[in-house]
Amino acid sequence: MNNKYKIMLVEDEKNILAFVSTLLETAGYTVISAHTCSEGKMMFSSHNPDLIILDLGLPDGDGISLLTYIRKSSYIPIIVLSARTDESDKVDALDKGANDYITKPFGSAELVARVRSALRTRHYSDESSDFTNSIFTLGDMEIDYDARRITISGTEIMLTQTEYNIIALLSQYSGKVMTYSAIINAIWGYNDEGSRKKLQVNMANIRKKLGAVPGKQSYIINKLGVGYQMNI
Amino acid sequence: MNDGYSEVRKIKKNIKNIGIMMITLVLAFVLCLVIDNYFYNRSLIPAIFVLAVYIISVLTEGYTYGAIASLISVLAVNFAFTFPFFKFDFTIHENVVSAVIMIIVTLVTGTLTTKLKQQEAIKAESEKERMRANLLRAVSHDLRTPLTSIYGSSSTIIDNYELLSDERKLQLLDGIKNDSDWLARMVENLLSITKLDGGKTRLVKTPVVVEELVDSVLQKISRRYPAIKINIDMPDELLIVPMDAMLIEQVMINIINNSIFHGECTTTINLWIFSENNKCIFEITDDGKGIAADKLKSILSGAHLTAENTLETKNSSGIGLSVCNTIVRAHGGEILAENIKGGGAMLRFTLDMEETVIEQ
């Protein structure tokens, strides 16, 4: 009974709270809910949840402040709920440590899928925080971190150093949406005017090499205007 | 920077206005000299200067230039065309009276034309206001229909939960889902419009890879309409276009939604993207029934959102394409709608590939 994942939902809208908790309970999760930032802080330390779904617009302050508070002490997966117009808020939340975001309005299937994928991320980071000695698999794709080699259905994909580094980075944070600037900083170590273009060119080549077709699911999900995410 | 820029523009405008004034006055003066020398007729001269002042008032901005021109005219007439010639003389009563009359006539002319211009501006503004009111009225009506159905269906289910068969309940719930989906899309459109409203907030363009834009659009469309086939034809080269990605995504989604919704029998959509003369061209065609001939002209401008619209339901052409028009124009691009041979509609919009630098 107690092996169910526990999800903390921080949301002030009564109706959304009701629908999301019903949905998650039906999907087999235990749900605890908080209505404000301060309640969220309290419940986080007392209940020790496995995942947090956080609305950015809370009555007693910005959801971001709760996010930074939790990130000081924990790597728990956090999914942020946001409205479409808050494009910069999404990027901000991701850069401050959110794993994923869902844009309102969202459907039930979408939410459950994100929750599953975020919980799987947690699974990865629990097993080992050291990725360098392992092999990462996603569908037909296999990344050998030791040999710095990527194969799809056994066939090696020829990549440049940078291309490999980008894919490896995304795989290490698979399930987490990586913003453009986060990737740029991790790969090149600095972020200047030309960086975005460099990333775009490299990603275009990676897509070609991985055989991505626009509109079809691929290994790497393109989050327009925000960043990229390795699908898991 | 911005201030310096507007300062330069102001000076340029002033120079232009002064130029117009000087040229017109000189022409009038020369004309008067010619008439004076060849026809020996001075009765025409004040009339010519009044005409010149009128032209200056029409062509320049504000009262100032008209007033200055009227003063110069009076001086010029007094100096060159009244006795004593080529000498200022305000001691002769006749000259003073004619000067006063001329000043009054020219000032009145200047004032009238300025007022006329102001009235035209007000008229244009109120026309815009009327369009906005129409749009709001159409939208509010359009919003009420799905809301009625959502409220009605859900309260029906709650009040008659035991009485309704499961099948019936599912049917009502499905209606609720579809209507909310439609509402969500409508709200997206309204948000896009308010984002651009009045051009107060400047569009923030970032370089976007067209392939990623198309991918994002298709992910959304195929989730909503899995049965529709979409063919893509785009060049292998990397196309990067500066844009507000969310808004242009909205444009493409609106166009495709429209094709599917109003094309009625649409099964296939073709998306053709290419670059030409440093412009990126997006052409979206479908195999539906096309756009009704009487709507073809008004569909982009939103002019069809008039009184008749209040009778239509969400199956009307709605605001989708006029939102596209607003967004593309705000990007400095162009959009056009046509029917293609053999049925089906074609929507094409173009965006500049390179950010044109307007300010220093």
Walkthrough of the structure:
The complex is a heterodimer of chains A (232) and B (360). With 232 residues, chain A is α/β, with parallel strands linked by helices. Chain A has two domains: 6-127, Rossmann fold, CATH 3.40.50.2300; 135-230, Orthogonal Bundle (Arc Repressor Mutant, subunit A). In chain A, 43% of the residues lie in helices and 24% in strands. Chain A contains eight helices and 14 strands. Chain A has helices at residues 14-26, 37-47, 63-71, 87-95, 108-127, 161-172, 180-188, 195-210, and strands at residues 6-10, 30-34, 51-55, 57-58, 61-62, 78-83, 100-104, 135-138, 141-144, 149-152, 155-156, 177-179, 220-223, 227-230. Chain A has a five-stranded parallel beta sheet with strand order 2-1-3-6-7, sandwiched between helices. Chain A has a four-stranded antiparallel beta sheet with strand order 8-9-10-11, covered by helices on one side. In chain A, strand 9 (141-144) and strand 10 form a beta hairpin. The longest helix of chain A has 20 residues, at 108-127. The two termini of chain A are 27 Å apart. The relative contact order of chain A is 0.10. The model of chain A has no long low-confidence stretch (mean pLDDT 87). With 360 residues, chain B is α+β, with helices and mostly antiparallel strands. Chain B folds into three domains: 2-123, no CATH class; 129-197, Signal transduction histidine kinase, dimerisation/phosphotransfer (DHp) domain (Helix Hairpins); 202-352, Heat Shock Protein 90, CATH 3.30.565.10. Chain B is built from eight helices and seven strands. Helix content of chain B is 59%, strand content 12%. The chains are: A alpha/beta (232), B alpha+beta (360). The interface between A and B is medium-sized, with 19 and 27 residues.
Helix content of chain B: 55-70%
Shape of chain B: elongated
Q: Any idea what the radius of gyration of chain A is?
A: 18 Å
Question: At the fourth CATH level, what is the homologous superfamily of the largest domain in chain B?
Answer: Histidine kinase-like ATPase, C-terminal domain
Largest interface, with counts of residues having CB < 8 Å to the other chain, equals:
A-B, 19 and 27 residues
* Relevant CATH superfamily of the largest domain in chain A: Response regulator
The quaternary organization reads as heterodimer
